[in-house]
Amino acid sequence: MKEFSLKYGCNPNQTPARIFMADGEDLPVEILNGRPGYINFLDAFNAWQLVRELAKSTGQPAATSFKHVSPTSAAIGRRLSPALKRACFADGIDGLDESPLACAYARARGTDRMSSFGDFIALSDECDEVTARLIAREVSDGIIAPAYSPEALKILKAKRKGGYNIIKIDREYVPAPVERKQVFGVTFEQGRNNVEINKTLLENIVTRNKNLPEEGATDLVVALITLKYTQSNSVCFAADGQAIGVGAGQQSRIHCTRLAAEKADRWHLRQHEKTLSLRFADGVGRPEKNNIIDLYLSDESEAVLAEGEWQKYFAVRPDPFPREEREEYLAKISGVSLGSDAFFPFADNIERAARSGVSYVAQPGGSVRDGDVIAAADGHNMVMAFTGVRLFHH
Question: In what order do the strands lie in the sheet with 62-67?
């Protein structure tokens, strides 16, 4: 296939639209089902690069959930604890423990379920039946993977009344070393960002504490590879082989950090017994539950707990989860990793990260206030590595 015509571009008024290879070669994809759009392909190609690199770096299957050209999360194929399965709404999937790929997607989709609503999925390996059954339950726009089992393809083709977007990518495809795009009629050209992210980038530890365990190093690699395909400015929190909070596209780095930290905190709080014990009213679907849980874990919980309101959402009125109790629970969290796509200009980022259990940090370094940032990390006994590599992505 030399080109693929699109219904329109980013918006319905932007026509004509298509994807094609400038050198006249065949596209590296097959459309197995549906009719992906312009933004679908932007998500698909960025997401595929992420999972391909994550699998290569860690040696484990990887999955990501993308929305508007940034990952909501990315994860490698580790089994989920019973609590995490419940928090991710993945406790009813038969065979989940036996499919590392399905575990990876359950984690990626379950991290920030509100943002993942209507996601585009990328898988590093052949989509198996278990992963397909998990995807079939979720609201999603499409998927890209290097292969699909016959059973998986049958399940996915039935999704969205037969219109689900299924893309097969050539896993051997290597793009040209120089890339181009146009903005306002002007052509931009640059070398592709082919920097390899692995644990060697973490060797320059600048803090007093230099004890970076293997688990922390793996999570930092997960965070950095996630950031490589996240719209900048961006910050990523990671734990247990998955991105648990992504702050993307903010003009101020502290706002990236705050946003990512809030999402990471919600990920932890979703696994609290109070949250897991919520008894929803009959007829409340998973998308509605995501919104309800988000409000329940916020300072606006009265929106779902007030008399006359809770009856719409719950079979039994839940006990409130006040801020003081949430903060007490979060204060016990540690071992979280934090990556940043560029240097931290002020120590306030470290102070905010400390409140969300961050123990390990990776950032490029190079700020005139590096000393202040290092001192703040030392004050919290963090391990911080300067990678020397900026990861802006636009």
Answer: 29-33, 165-169, 140-145, 119-123, 62-67, 70-76, 242-248, 234-239, 336-340, 358-363, 383-386
Domain map (residue ranges) of the chain: 3-172, 190-269+330-386, 276-320
pLDDT, position 7 = 92
Residue 66 three-state SS: strand
Q: How confident is the model at residue 60 (pLDDT cuts 50, 70, 90)?
A: very high
The amino acid at residue 160 is R
At residue 238, the pLDDT reads 98
33, 46, 67, 159: the active-site residue: 67
For residues 133 and 113, is the Cβ–Cβ distance under 8 A?
Answer: no
CATH top-level class of 3-172: alpha beta
Candidate list 56, 68, 157, 274, residue with the active-site label: 68
Alpha-carbon gap, residue 273 to 277, rounded angstroms = 6
Active site residue 272: no
Distance CA 166, CA 120 (A): 10
Closest residue by Cα to residue 3 from 15, 16, 19, 17: 19
Whether the pLDDT of residue 92 is over 90: the answer is no
CATH of domain 190-269+330-386: 3.40.140.20
Q: Which amino acid is at 113?
A: R
Q: Do domains 3-172 and 190-269+330-386 have the same CATH topology?
A: yes
Whether 393 sits among the annotated catalytic residues: the reply is no
What does residue 122 show for φ and ψ, rounded to 5 degrees?
A: -130, 135
CB 343 within 8 Å of CB 369: no
Determine the Cα–Cα distance for residues 356 and 178; give it in Å rounded to an integer.
39
What's the mean pLDDT in 347-365? 97
Q: Is the pLDDT of residue 253 over 90?
A: yes
Annotated catalytic residue within 40, 46, 233, 349: 233
Helix, strand, or coil (residue 229): coil
HEC string of 146-176?
CCECHHHHHHHHCHHHHCCEEEEECCCCCCC
d(CA 9, CA 366): 38
What pTM value is reported for the model?
0.96
Active site residue 209: no
Do β-strands 234-239 and 62-67 pair in parallel, antiparallel, or remain unpaired? unpaired
157 catalytic, yes or no? no
User: What does the block give as tokens for 390?
Assistant: 């900026």
| Cβ neighbours for 59, distance < 8 A, ≥ 6 positions apart | none
